[in-house]
Amino acid sequence: MHLLSRLSCSTFRFARQVTTKVRDIRADRFSPRYQESNAQYLLRHTTGKDLREIYRIAKPFRKLVFMGTGFMIISGGIFLIIPRILGKLIDKYGNQQNLTEEDNSLTMKIATYFKENPIALAGLLATGAVATAAKVYCLQIAGVKFIRALRRSVFSSVLKQDMRFFDKNIVGEIGSRHSADTIIVGYSVSTSLRGGVRALLIGIGSVVAMFMTSTELSIVSCLTAPIVLGLFRMFGKIQQQCTWQLQEVIADINRMAVERMTHAKTLRMISAEQRSIDEYIRKGDIVVEISKTEALAKGSLIGSFQFTAYSAFSSILFYGSHLINIGEISYGELSSFCLYAVMATASLSNISGFYNEVMKGIGASSRLLDLRNAEPGMKLDEGIKKTNITDRVHFENVSFTYFDRKNTLDNITFDIPRNKITAVIGPSGSGKSSIARLMLRLYDPDSGRITVDGIDMKDINPTAWRRSIGTVGQEPVLFTCSIRDNILLGAENPEKVSDEQLEEAATLANAIDFINSFENGFDTMVGENGCKLSGGQKQRIAIARALISKPKILILDEATSALDATSDYLIRMTLNNLLRNHDLTVLCIAHRLATMQQADNVVYVNRGRIEGQGSFEEMMKIQSSIVEKEARKRGIPMTDEMSKVLTANS
Ligand SMILES: Nc1ncnc2c1ncn2[C@@H]1O[C@H](COP(=O)(O)OP(=O)(O)OP(=O)(O)O)[C@@H](O)[C@H]1O
């Protein structure tokens, strides 16, 4: 007893040290974001609602789960009965001295039958093996289907979020969650659930069989149960904390690795490879550090468990041989008891693994369900389906601010009339692209309103509206597929677009010559984010993508900034032709007034406010006063050269 109490005291002391270590790692290394994700936080926030939701996602595959569980019961039952049969056979055919009475029990009859028909015993074992294989198959497929359903719902929910969601969240990390966390949840609902339910069934079955075989020996074995449970509780908790922390750090490492590998060219240009490698190694060190603590907790748990189990076995054997001597039990019964005790011990260890995996799965699922259930502020497909402009788009006292920023646009009022080119010019960071984003209804204004032919933009279906707009952004984004597929992404029904239409869009965008110069023409792969193309080529493909659906509205945000003077000129001519021959309304964003000669109306934006608007000629007249005002604001002496600044590069 004294030894036991000393042992438990030192174990508690050790556990306290490990817990403190975990806390220290957390405090030193993690931002509040990580701290929020610790075990208690996640458990507190994992509600019955989450579990019900997991059940709802898994519901379509319940047939497979039930079949798997059925096969598990069959195989578990077969393997549970075997030790009992073997024990009976040892007693009957092993010259047993203490067997005084004739055994007419059902188990003995079954044992005798199998002794006389060994092929039937082999058949029973084979049935158990087939049931095990079927169980693994059913539950594994259920797990894969569950992961697919969970991923699908998380992916579609993330893609349907409004822009403010993406401003607030780190996309790389969401990507990592989407791939890693779904696997963890899927693993816990399939593999660990399979192992856990099996361990639970076998564990309960073996304990019942132990009591049926010898109550006295069972009581002796059960004396160690509180120690085992205490050990599980202590070390299991530490292990859980480490596991959750590991998930957080690994998500961060993945995000960083993908980002740095994607931008390897930029890293090379700024010679930041080694710094990135060092950062990666530093983060990897944190993983090792947490893993060491986890391994220490795991090792201690297994070691103490082994110690307790062997002590219990020694007691069973000592006490069991005493019971044989006094004729309380037989050799066969002691053998059966030992086999059941081994099974119960193995189950207990499996149950602890299962508990850890399920806790891991619950932690991962609560984060995934948060993503899945996030409600977008703006519904993608609700509202009036407006797809053209009959009069004008009107910005009326519009103010707008991004998350964590102040006054991006401040009380702006201007018009974008139908069939005209409206240019928005102004210095960098003045809010020009934000106007384009509001026009696309990527965001809604904080105050004021934007109307299209008198209809408030907030009542317009964003998807239908955006489909009617062709957009070329400042940094054209291409996807990792062929030139053809990149252009077709702009079409509502790509399968209905003919090769002639594709070539027409490429010709209008002045892209056809370079596309034809490639060996595979439109089927040339553009590489990750178009890395196999030049900036100007990417921009021209983006212009072709914007033109493929023959939009009624075009938004060009510095759309020709990466083009040479000739390509720029040719595209401007194309737009002029389109304007003349088609019903086209254009919002064009540029830094310099000089590039906006074709504009019907020019709006000058500075620091989120409109500081002047009028025709190109009118704006040319007032531009030097704008530059002068700006120079005065910044305390720069005005020179003749500066008044030409807006016309530079014309
Ligand atoms: N997603 C965002 N979240 C927070 N702030 C943003 C976001 N996008 C832009 N901003 C900020 O809003 C302001 C206006 O940005 P905007 O992109 O509209 O400027 P711009 O006039 O188009 O600049 P540029 O000519 O350099 O492209 C800037 O101060 C910018 O830092």
From TrEMBL:
TM regions (residue ranges): 64-86, 119-142, 218-236
Compartments (UniProt record): Membrane
GO biological process: oligopeptide export from mitochondrion
Keyword set includes Ribosomal protein: no
Domain ABC transmembrane type-1, chain residue ranges per copy: 66-360
InterPro entries per the UniProt record, alphabetical: AAA+_ATPase, ABC1_TM_dom, ABC1_TM_sf, ABC_transporter-like_ATP-bd, ABC_transporter-like_CS, P-loop_NTPase, Type_1_exporter
Membrane topology qualifier: Multi-pass membrane protein
SMART domains in UniProt: AAA
PANTHER family found in the cross-reference section: ATP-BINDING CASSETTE SUB-FAMILY B MEMBER 10, MITOCHONDRIAL, ATP-DEPENDENT PERMEASE MDL1, MITOCHONDRIAL
Designated name of the protein: Uncharacterized protein
Annotated source species: Caenorhabditis angaria
